[in-house]
Structure formats: C-alpha cells, structure tokens
Amino acid sequence: MAAVSDRFAQTAPRVGFVSLGCPKALVDSERILTQLKVEGYQVVGGYREADLVVVNTCGFIEAAQQESLDAIGEALAENGKVIVTGCLGKREALIRERHPQVLAITGPHDYESVMRAVHAQLAPPARNPYIDLIPASGIKLTPRHYAYLKISEGCNHKCSFCIIPKLRGRLVSRPIGEVLQEAEQLVKDGVKELLVVAQDTSAYGVDIKYTGAVWRGNDYRTQLTDLCRGLGELGVWIRLHYVYPYPHVSEVIPLMAAGKLLPYLDIPLQHASQKMLKAMRRPAAGEKALKRIQEWRAICPDLTIRSTFIVGFPGETAADFAELLAFIKEAQLDRVGCFTYSPVESADANALPDWVPAEVAQERRRLFMETQAQISAVRLQRFAGRELTVLVDSVVDDKAIARSFADAPEIDGVVRISNAAKLKPGGFTKVLVTGSDHYDLFAQP
Ligand code: SF4
User: Which of 204, 275, 284, 315 has the highest CB neighbour number within 10 Å of its CB?
Assistant: First the structure.
C-alpha cells in the first residue's frame, strides 16, 4: 500500500502554498488546500519542490500589502510560477506593476477562479483513492483542536478607515444549516474549540432575511442567537469574534451564563468618543457601549471582553483621547489591542482633515497600553486560587501552554502550567491558578 501511495505522490503535480492575513483569509486558504488535495494535487512545503506556488494575500493596511507583495516576489524568485489570490488580488494593477510575471490574479474567497488558474498550468492528476484520508471537514491550517468557523463574507458597513467592503464585497451570509453541519463535522473530526468569525458577526443573516433550516430536528434561523443556540448543542468551546454591540447581542449573554457558549466577546470598539466614532463611521456608533457592557456583566459576571482601538485617527484631539482613556478605565476590558492610525490607499478617511502627527499618535498608544496593562493585571488577579478548565495547546518538558475561556488563540494571553509532563496537547484539563502577571496566568495541574 505504501508503494501505491508513493507512486501517486511521485506523479501528482506539486503546489506550494503561502497563506497570509487574518483568520478569514486562513479559512479561504483551508478551502483552497482542501480542494487541491481532493483533486489529487500534492501540497508541498518548499518553493523549489513545487511546480507552482499559490500566494493568498492580505490587503488590509499598507504594511500587510507590502508583506504580500514581498511574499509574491520571494515566491517568484524561488519558483517562478505564481498564482495570486486573496484581498490584495483586488488590486491587480498594483501587483502587475511590481510583479508583471505572475500567472494569474484572483480576489478573496474566489476558490473556483484559483482552481481554474491552477488547472490552466497543471492538469489535475488521475483520481487518487487516498483522498479519503482527508477529514470530511477538509484541510485545516490551525492545530487539530481548534478551528475557525466562517459564517459570512463581506460587510455592509462603510467604516472610513477600512477598504474591506471594497475588497470583499457586501455581506453574504452562509445559510444556518450549512454552518451547523460544518461545525458538527469539525467536532466529529476532533475539534474542541470553534472560533466564529466574519467581518461583522452581529449582522449574520440580515442579507438572506434570516432564512430558516432544520438541524437535528429543530428549527433555526440564519441569525446570531439561533447560531449560538445550535453551536451550544455541540458540547465544545464556542468563541465569538467581531461582534458589534447591537441590542440583539444581549440575547446571547444568557447562553453564556448557562455555559452553552464561552463567556467571551470580541468587540472591536475602535474608540469611545462619539465624535471619533462618527468620523470613523462605525457600526453601532450610537450605542452606549459602556452601559451595555455593564448590563452584560450583571447577567454573566465572568464575561471576558476583548476589543481593539485606534488612536491618532484624523481629528482626534487631546480631549477625545482623554475620553478614550476614561472609557477603558471604567469599562475594565480584559483583553485590548491598540493601533496607531495607519492610512490605507483608497480609504475614505484619507480625505479627513486634522491628521495627528505620528509622534503624538505613538505617545497616545504608549499611554493607552500602559493604562490597559495595569487594568489587565488587576483583572487577572481575580482568578488566583480558582480552579479553571483549560485547553492545552502545547507541552514541552514539564511545562504546558494552555488557554482558559478568557484566552483566544494567537491574540490573547495564555495559562502557563508547570509540572505538566502528563498533559496532552489538544485536551481539556483542570488547573489551579497560582498567580498572574499583566497578561498571563500561572497554574498547576
Ligand atoms: S465593520 Fe467596518 S471595519 Fe469591519 S469590515 Fe466592515 S467596514 Fe471594515
């Protein structure tokens, strides 16, 4: 059997793959890789051994565009045959100007065009019986125990600093039945944590008028609360990302309090000053975020809130920044990221007056992060002496890195476990929290 398998491996065309960008782009990469494997292509790790290379790019901010252009250049230099896809693919002229020799360029979540471009260069091989070895949920680029679940594409908002709607188009939701079936399959394949992602998770289903479906004998509509109800039946960790604080989000908090979903919300608030939120044209800009957070915590005291903010946005005054600092002190958010404003080509915000000098923006960011580090350190102290269930990500010697309900992979802190030689990556375990620093917890099995 090994010999037959090797023969397929030797004859199948080989495709190299570079995946850049956010979790949504990662899901696109997973889909393309799955399709390549299903059609019998070999996916290889090095440029030199590949017959061609697919680069899935990011086009969100200037630095990401540069990284993508560099990655295309590297693939061209090392291999010579390159197909470009992803968000930067929408900027074909820019790519052609820098790299005229790329073979084909397609936009984000356009799997069929990528496959057409691959077929044009490398005919699909004879069908390989070993494709059955691919899990039904497809190829994943995340560790086996967690997976991103993309529920929609695109966005109906027009935030002035963002070009995602221009790159990815308007909101297109995946019907609830399809999403729940995918989630169920991922769990059957061993996933212990599902991370729900979209550009705007709160808007899920509005474009398809909340179409209904039957799953496991029960009715569900394509909307956030029903999605959470369904996912809550799967018995794994469910974590919500990119949620905007609309009133209907309050419906999912009782599900968190009941243990159906992780008590965790990733809400990209971006600012606290109404003037700045209006200039940014943020969704839910008129909502009273602080009041809503306080109401949610009254229902679910353990709720961990993650957010991101932009400082130094055009027109931000010292008073606006002071309002933002006062907000984070009062809101006591758990996990926070902060970026200085960085202009993106063709974003509407470029036309705004009163740009903030770079050194002022940097200083505001420093102050912001210093303030938040203190808040985070104090927030984490509440876990001291508590028993927590954690999901183990890795074990090296007798130390393990794990995450609790309060930690999303890659972006939040972790739980550092000592005397952990017996723990296994990908498993749940109970630990006793012995201490904390600014961002991480320390624990014993
Ligand atoms: S909500 Fe705003 S920032 Fe987020 S993708 Fe849509 S336009 Fe961009």
Answer: 204
Tens of pLDDT, residues 377-408: 999 999 999 999 999 999 999 999 999 999 99
Q: For 300-347, how does the pLDDT look when each residue is reduced to its tens digit (9 = 90+)?
A: 999 999 999 999 999 999 999 999 999 999 999 999 999 999 888 888
Phi and psi at residue 332, to the nearest 5°: 50, 55
Ligand 1 center–CA 218 separation, angstroms: 33
Concatenated DSSP letters for 134-198? S-TT---SS-TTEEEEE-EES-S---TT--HHHHH-S-EEPPHHHHHHHHHHHHHTT--EEEEE-
- For the stretch 49-103, pLDDT in tens is 999 999 999 887 778 889 999 999 999 999 999 999 998 988 899 999 999 999 9
> What lines the ligand 1 site, CB under 6 Å?
155, 157, 159, 162, 164-165, 199-200, 283
Other C-beta atoms within 10 Å of 279: how many?
21
Which ligand 1 atom lies nearest to the CA of residue 283?
1
Burial degree of 360 (CB within 10 A; 0-12, 13-18, 19+): middle
Among protein residues, the one with the nearest Cα to ligand 1's atom 4 is 199
- Is there a contact between 317 and 361 (Cβ–Cβ < 8 Å)? no
Q: Ligand 1, closest atom to CA 200?
A: 1
d(CA 12, ligand 1 centre) in Å: 41
Distance 310 CA to ligand 1 centre (A): 13
Contacts of 358 (CB under 8 A, 6+ apart): 312, 340
Instruction: Find the 164 Cα to ligand 1 centroid distance in Å.
Output: 6
Q: Which atom of ligand 1 is nearest to the CA of 242?
A: 4
Q: Which residue has the tokens 């998770």?
A: 201
3-state secondary structure of 105: strand
Q: For residue 141, give the nearest of 89, 80, 195 by alpha carbon.
A: 195
Alpha-carbon distance of 160 to 415, in angstroms, equals: 37
CA of 162, closest atom in ligand 1: 8
Q: Which long-range contacts (CB under 8 A, 24 or more apart) does 35-38 make?
A: 35/111, 35/115, 36/115, 36/118, 37/131, 37/134, 37/139, 38/131, 38/134
